[in-house]
Please model this.
Amino acid sequence: MLTKAPRGTKDLFGDEINEWVEMEKIIRNLCSDFGYGEIRTPIFEHTELFQRGVGETTDIVQKEMYSFQDKKGRNITLKPEGTAGAARAYLEHKMYANPQPTKLYYITPAFRYEKPQAGRMRQFHQFGIELFGAESATADVEVITVAAELLKRMGISKVKLHINSLGGPECRKKYNQKLKEYLGKNLDNLCETCKERFEKNPLRILDCKKESCGDIVANAPTVLDTLGDECRDHFEMVKTLLDEMGIEYVVDPGIVRGLDYYTRTVFEFISTDIGAQGTICGGGRYNNLVEELGGPSTPAVGFAVGLERLLLVREAEKGKKEYAPSKDIFIGYIGEKALVKAHGLVYKLRQKGIKAESDHLKKSVKAQMKYGDKIGAKYSMILGENEINTGKAMIKNMETREQIEVDLSNIVEIIGDLI
Ligand code: ATP
Ligand code: MG
Model:
């Protein structure tokens, strides 16, 4: 128990953390190129924020939240996603008073009580962006281009963009009616959860992963047929802009997304390479969320990428990345006096940005050199009584085995020039 991390969580270290750091670097550069500023919101929020912001009828709120009461009896929840917190911060700090749009990104852990399996964790990580304060289709497409470019920069190609429109409240109302008429005839054959959804949020039934429901849903009327003129024009513009940018997509009426707040454009990037947990990015427009949280009416669009899944997809396509250790120089020593000199020199070199190492275990010279090799040192040098007395030492190129004699009086500069 004490030596095992909680189910559905994971320690990241070694080669794996290198991949994460590299991925985060790609994300941060990407967001800088596309003009998104970072936001870091708390890991926990008031439970009500997610109930309102994510939606009472969603799986997240109904089954998956890590909620608890703090010592003062406040209802608190570990964030299951990033949008609600970002929207709350947008309101709290009156970002709507700035020139719009407000373009934010986040990289955050998220928590959901789910059955752990490949690509499904209880603590996982999301990269997401939110564009607040712009209504036009250009904003939808800009957001999509950020995700498309991320996949490109990650070297992932076996992914397809699926897009759909859920329309605005008016089209939704009409569609819900049509959908209920259709589903009402098949009510007995729906799963128990979908029977409940039928009353509260029939759209959610389109998202059901159960085969029996899937068969019924396959012949359901599509929301695209119910779109009003404005929503239809908006969707057409999204497609025109995607064409202009050379981003391939399929129109997929099955994309309805798990969260309640979406309006108009919704999209997913789905891997054609990894099976069940193939959705690596989901997003869309959510024009009602900010108002739902008590703010001014604010159109918004965004997405979230599951970072564990992103790496899974990259690994499936390109194999596991290996990171060879690498250091600039290993400074070995023989004897107490040289030990002091060696460690003193290592500190000076590090201050100059040179990756230097020495030995902390009082190993034999032979073992020290072996260690230097193992940690990927490009050069090595050994200090002993003799070197200290003469003020001269040998630097060895660990690859070619070539050695050069150097003067210890200005050794930091010499090594600096070498590296
Ligand atoms: P799914 O249908 O797989 O449950 P979702 O609709 O619940 O996904 P979103 O809420 O849209 O997912 O979250 C955005 C992304 O976060 C997902 O596309 C996925 O890549 C990732 N994600 C969601 N839940 C998990 C989880 N439990 N573990 C790892 N990644 C997750
Ligand atoms: Mg889910």
